[in-house]
Specification:
Layout: H1 6-30, H2 33-38, H3 50-63, E1 72-75, E2 81-86, E3 89-94, E4 99-102, E5 105-108, E6 113-114, H4 115-123, E7 137-141, E8 146-152, H5 157-166, E9 172-178, H6 186-195, H7 199-209, H8 223-232, E10 240-243, E11 248-250, H9 255-265
Parallel strand pairs: 8-9
Antiparallel strand pairs: 1-2, 2-3, 3-4, 4-5, 5-6, 7-9, 8-10, 10-11
Helix pairs in contact: 6-7
Length: 266
Amino acid sequence: MTFLSPDAFARSLRKAAPCLMALVLSLGALLPVQAQVKQAAPAAAPAASAEVAKAIKEAIETWTSNRYKVDEVRRTPIPGMYEARIGSDLFYVDEKAQYIFMEGHMLDMKNNRDLTRERLDEVLAINFKDLPLELAIKQVNGKGTRRIALFEDPNCGYCKKLRADLANLPDVTIYTFAYPILAADSDVKSRKAWCAKDRNKAWNDLMLSGKVPDNDGTCSNPIARIKELGRKYNVSATPTVFLTNGRRIQGYMPAEQFAKAIADSL
Protein backbone atom coordinates (compact mmCIF):
# COMPACT_ATOMS: atom_id res chain seq x y z
CA MET A 1 0.00 0.00 0.00
CA THR A 2 1.43 3.36 -1.00
CA PHE A 3 0.50 6.53 0.83
CA LEU A 4 0.33 10.03 -0.53
CA SER A 5 1.09 12.70 2.03
CA PRO A 6 -0.16 16.30 1.98
CA ASP A 7 3.47 17.32 1.34
CA ALA A 8 3.46 15.22 -1.83
CA PHE A 9 0.21 16.91 -2.83
CA ALA A 10 1.83 20.31 -2.24
CA ARG A 11 4.80 19.39 -4.41
CA SER A 12 2.41 18.26 -7.15
CA LEU A 13 0.65 21.63 -7.05
CA ARG A 14 3.93 23.48 -7.42
CA LYS A 15 5.04 21.24 -10.29
CA ALA A 16 1.74 21.33 -12.14
CA ALA A 17 1.56 25.07 -12.86
CA PRO A 18 4.62 25.47 -15.14
CA CYS A 19 3.88 22.20 -16.92
CA LEU A 20 0.30 23.21 -17.67
CA MET A 21 1.42 26.64 -18.89
CA ALA A 22 4.04 25.10 -21.17
CA LEU A 23 1.43 22.74 -22.59
CA VAL A 24 -1.00 25.58 -23.26
CA LEU A 25 1.68 27.67 -24.98
CA SER A 26 2.90 24.77 -27.09
CA LEU A 27 -0.61 23.87 -28.24
CA GLY A 28 -1.34 27.48 -29.05
CA ALA A 29 1.77 27.70 -31.18
CA LEU A 30 0.53 24.79 -33.30
CA LEU A 31 -2.74 26.48 -34.25
CA PRO A 32 -2.95 28.80 -37.28
CA VAL A 33 -3.31 32.44 -36.33
CA GLN A 34 -6.76 32.67 -37.90
CA ALA A 35 -7.92 29.61 -35.99
CA GLN A 36 -6.79 31.19 -32.75
CA VAL A 37 -8.68 34.38 -33.55
CA LYS A 38 -11.87 32.79 -34.84
CA GLN A 39 -12.10 29.92 -32.39
CA ALA A 40 -15.11 30.44 -30.16
CA ALA A 41 -14.65 30.29 -26.42
CA PRO A 42 -15.99 27.05 -25.00
CA ALA A 43 -19.22 27.23 -23.07
CA ALA A 44 -18.69 27.46 -19.35
CA ALA A 45 -19.32 24.23 -17.50
CA PRO A 46 -22.26 24.41 -15.09
CA ALA A 47 -21.43 24.76 -11.43
CA ALA A 48 -21.92 21.75 -9.19
CA SER A 49 -24.84 21.60 -6.83
CA ALA A 50 -24.21 23.20 -3.45
CA GLU A 51 -24.32 19.83 -1.71
CA VAL A 52 -21.78 18.14 -4.01
CA ALA A 53 -19.51 21.20 -4.07
CA LYS A 54 -19.48 21.34 -0.27
CA ALA A 55 -18.63 17.63 0.03
CA ILE A 56 -15.79 17.87 -2.51
CA LYS A 57 -14.33 21.01 -0.94
CA GLU A 58 -14.38 19.50 2.52
CA ALA A 59 -12.83 16.22 1.34
CA ILE A 60 -9.91 17.88 -0.47
CA GLU A 61 -9.25 20.45 2.23
CA THR A 62 -9.32 17.80 4.95
CA TRP A 63 -7.02 15.57 2.90
CA THR A 64 -4.50 18.41 2.58
CA SER A 65 -4.79 19.27 6.29
CA ASN A 66 -6.39 22.59 5.26
CA ARG A 67 -3.19 23.78 3.59
CA TYR A 68 -5.15 24.47 0.43
CA LYS A 69 -8.63 25.85 -0.14
CA VAL A 70 -10.77 24.79 -3.08
CA ASP A 71 -11.84 27.88 -5.01
CA GLU A 72 -14.46 26.32 -7.24
CA VAL A 73 -16.18 23.04 -8.08
CA ARG A 74 -17.78 22.51 -11.48
CA ARG A 75 -19.33 19.68 -13.43
CA THR A 76 -17.46 17.98 -16.27
CA PRO A 77 -18.82 16.28 -19.43
CA ILE A 78 -18.31 12.93 -17.67
CA PRO A 79 -21.29 11.98 -15.49
CA GLY A 80 -20.31 11.79 -11.83
CA MET A 81 -16.95 13.51 -12.38
CA TYR A 82 -16.28 17.02 -11.08
CA GLU A 83 -13.55 19.59 -11.59
CA ALA A 84 -12.01 21.10 -8.45
CA ARG A 85 -9.96 24.27 -8.87
CA ILE A 86 -7.26 25.38 -6.47
CA GLY A 87 -5.90 28.63 -7.81
CA SER A 88 -4.98 27.86 -11.42
CA ASP A 89 -4.62 24.12 -10.86
CA LEU A 90 -7.39 21.69 -11.81
CA PHE A 91 -8.12 18.29 -10.32
CA TYR A 92 -10.88 15.79 -10.98
CA VAL A 93 -12.97 14.23 -8.22
CA ASP A 94 -15.88 11.79 -8.14
CA GLU A 95 -19.25 12.96 -6.85
CA LYS A 96 -18.85 11.02 -3.59
CA ALA A 97 -15.68 13.00 -2.87
CA GLN A 98 -13.55 9.93 -2.26
CA TYR A 99 -11.32 9.68 -5.33
CA ILE A 100 -9.15 12.34 -6.94
CA PHE A 101 -7.14 12.13 -10.17
CA MET A 102 -3.73 13.78 -10.04
CA GLU A 103 -0.65 13.39 -12.28
CA GLY A 104 -2.15 10.30 -13.90
CA HIS A 105 -2.86 8.56 -10.60
CA MET A 106 -6.19 7.75 -8.99
CA LEU A 107 -5.96 8.48 -5.26
CA ASP A 108 -8.30 7.41 -2.48
CA MET A 109 -8.51 10.48 -0.25
CA LYS A 110 -10.53 8.84 2.51
CA ASN A 111 -8.05 6.00 2.99
CA ASN A 112 -4.99 7.93 1.77
CA ARG A 113 -4.10 5.32 -0.84
CA ASP A 114 -2.56 5.60 -4.29
CA LEU A 115 -4.71 3.06 -6.13
CA THR A 116 -2.79 3.42 -9.38
CA ARG A 117 0.49 2.73 -7.58
CA GLU A 118 -1.01 -0.36 -5.94
CA ARG A 119 -2.23 -1.70 -9.27
CA LEU A 120 1.16 -1.06 -10.84
CA ASP A 121 2.74 -2.99 -7.98
CA GLU A 122 0.54 -5.94 -8.93
CA VAL A 123 1.54 -5.63 -12.57
CA LEU A 124 5.22 -5.32 -11.63
CA ALA A 125 5.26 -8.24 -9.18
CA ILE A 126 8.07 -10.76 -9.61
CA ASN A 127 8.88 -14.36 -8.77
CA PHE A 128 10.95 -14.06 -5.59
CA LYS A 129 12.65 -17.38 -6.33
CA ASP A 130 14.19 -15.88 -9.46
CA LEU A 131 16.21 -13.29 -7.53
CA PRO A 132 19.97 -13.99 -7.52
CA LEU A 133 20.30 -13.73 -3.75
CA GLU A 134 24.02 -14.48 -3.92
CA LEU A 135 24.47 -10.88 -5.13
CA ALA A 136 22.89 -9.48 -1.98
CA ILE A 137 24.24 -8.59 1.44
CA LYS A 138 22.54 -10.96 3.87
CA GLN A 139 21.32 -9.93 7.32
CA VAL A 140 19.48 -12.30 9.67
CA ASN A 141 17.32 -11.01 12.51
CA GLY A 142 16.41 -13.74 15.01
CA LYS A 143 15.62 -17.02 13.30
CA GLY A 144 15.23 -15.26 9.97
CA THR A 145 12.36 -17.46 8.81
CA ARG A 146 10.68 -14.61 6.91
CA ARG A 147 12.48 -13.13 3.92
CA ILE A 148 12.56 -9.86 2.01
CA ALA A 149 14.72 -8.46 -0.79
CA LEU A 150 15.63 -4.80 -0.65
CA PHE A 151 17.15 -2.46 -3.25
CA GLU A 152 18.90 0.45 -1.50
CA ASP A 153 21.09 3.38 -2.50
CA PRO A 154 23.62 4.49 0.17
CA ASN A 155 22.58 8.13 -0.35
CA CYS A 156 18.84 7.47 -0.04
CA GLY A 157 17.29 9.20 2.97
CA TYR A 158 14.18 7.01 3.07
CA CYS A 159 16.38 3.92 2.73
CA LYS A 160 18.17 4.99 5.91
CA LYS A 161 14.85 5.47 7.67
CA LEU A 162 13.71 2.02 6.57
CA ARG A 163 17.05 0.51 7.59
CA ALA A 164 16.56 1.84 11.14
CA ASP A 165 13.13 0.18 11.24
CA LEU A 166 14.54 -3.10 9.95
CA ALA A 167 16.99 -3.25 12.86
CA ASN A 168 13.99 -3.84 15.13
CA LEU A 169 12.09 -6.18 12.84
CA PRO A 170 12.15 -9.70 14.33
CA ASP A 171 12.52 -13.05 12.62
CA VAL A 172 13.47 -11.85 9.14
CA THR A 173 16.26 -12.41 6.65
CA ILE A 174 17.04 -9.27 4.68
CA TYR A 175 18.73 -9.57 1.30
CA THR A 176 20.07 -6.13 0.43
CA PHE A 177 20.98 -5.32 -3.16
CA ALA A 178 23.30 -2.30 -3.20
CA TYR A 179 21.70 -0.28 -5.99
CA PRO A 180 23.61 2.98 -6.61
CA ILE A 181 21.40 5.22 -8.74
CA LEU A 182 21.02 8.50 -6.86
CA ALA A 183 24.39 10.25 -6.62
CA ALA A 184 27.85 10.26 -8.17
CA ASP A 185 29.46 8.65 -5.12
CA SER A 186 26.72 6.06 -4.55
CA ASP A 187 28.64 3.55 -6.65
CA VAL A 188 31.87 4.10 -4.69
CA LYS A 189 30.14 3.70 -1.33
CA SER A 190 28.36 0.54 -2.52
CA ARG A 191 31.59 -1.05 -3.71
CA LYS A 192 33.40 -0.18 -0.49
CA ALA A 193 30.64 -1.78 1.57
CA TRP A 194 30.83 -4.94 -0.52
CA CYS A 195 34.63 -5.04 -0.19
CA ALA A 196 34.54 -4.75 3.62
CA LYS A 197 35.41 -7.81 5.73
CA ASP A 198 31.97 -7.71 7.35
CA ARG A 199 29.64 -6.58 4.57
CA ASN A 200 26.52 -6.59 6.69
CA LYS A 201 28.07 -4.43 9.42
CA ALA A 202 29.66 -2.13 6.84
CA TRP A 203 26.34 -1.58 5.08
CA ASN A 204 24.46 -0.93 8.31
CA ASP A 205 27.15 1.49 9.50
CA LEU A 206 27.00 3.26 6.15
CA MET A 207 23.21 3.57 6.19
CA LEU A 208 22.68 4.30 9.88
CA SER A 209 25.67 6.47 10.77
CA GLY A 210 27.11 7.54 7.42
CA LYS A 211 30.40 5.74 8.07
CA VAL A 212 32.04 4.89 4.75
CA PRO A 213 34.17 1.69 4.86
CA ASP A 214 37.91 2.29 4.87
CA ASN A 215 39.00 0.42 1.74
CA ASP A 216 39.60 1.27 -1.90
CA GLY A 217 36.50 -0.58 -3.15
CA THR A 218 38.40 -2.36 -5.90
CA CYS A 219 37.60 -5.95 -4.97
CA SER A 220 35.51 -8.14 -7.25
CA ASN A 221 31.92 -7.03 -6.68
CA PRO A 222 28.44 -7.52 -8.20
CA ILE A 223 27.41 -3.83 -8.39
CA ALA A 224 27.26 -3.77 -12.20
CA ARG A 225 25.19 -6.97 -12.21
CA ILE A 226 22.84 -5.52 -9.58
CA LYS A 227 22.29 -2.46 -11.76
CA GLU A 228 21.33 -4.78 -14.63
CA LEU A 229 19.02 -6.68 -12.29
CA GLY A 230 17.35 -3.44 -11.23
CA ARG A 231 16.76 -2.47 -14.84
CA LYS A 232 15.36 -5.92 -15.56
CA TYR A 233 12.81 -5.55 -12.79
CA ASN A 234 12.12 -1.87 -13.49
CA VAL A 235 13.43 -0.72 -10.12
CA SER A 236 13.37 3.03 -10.66
CA ALA A 237 13.53 4.30 -7.08
CA THR A 238 14.89 3.36 -3.69
CA PRO A 239 13.98 1.85 -1.37
CA THR A 240 12.21 -0.88 -3.31
CA VAL A 241 11.27 -4.03 -1.42
CA PHE A 242 10.17 -7.38 -2.81
CA LEU A 243 8.21 -9.74 -0.57
CA THR A 244 8.20 -13.50 -0.97
CA ASN A 245 4.80 -13.40 -2.69
CA GLY A 246 6.38 -11.22 -5.37
CA ARG A 247 4.73 -7.98 -4.25
CA ARG A 248 6.73 -4.80 -4.74
CA ILE A 249 6.76 -1.99 -2.18
CA GLN A 250 8.28 1.18 -3.58
CA GLY A 251 9.19 3.93 -1.16
CA TYR A 252 9.19 4.11 2.62
CA MET A 253 6.38 2.48 4.56
CA PRO A 254 5.89 3.04 8.31
CA ALA A 255 7.20 0.21 10.48
CA GLU A 256 3.83 -1.19 11.63
CA GLN A 257 2.43 -1.22 8.11
CA PHE A 258 5.62 -2.75 6.75
CA ALA A 259 5.49 -5.55 9.33
CA LYS A 260 1.86 -6.21 8.41
CA ALA A 261 2.74 -6.32 4.69
CA ILE A 262 5.36 -8.98 5.42
CA ALA A 263 2.90 -10.98 7.52
CA ASP A 264 0.27 -10.77 4.78
CA SER A 265 2.76 -12.02 2.18
CA LEU A 266 3.33 -15.37 3.90
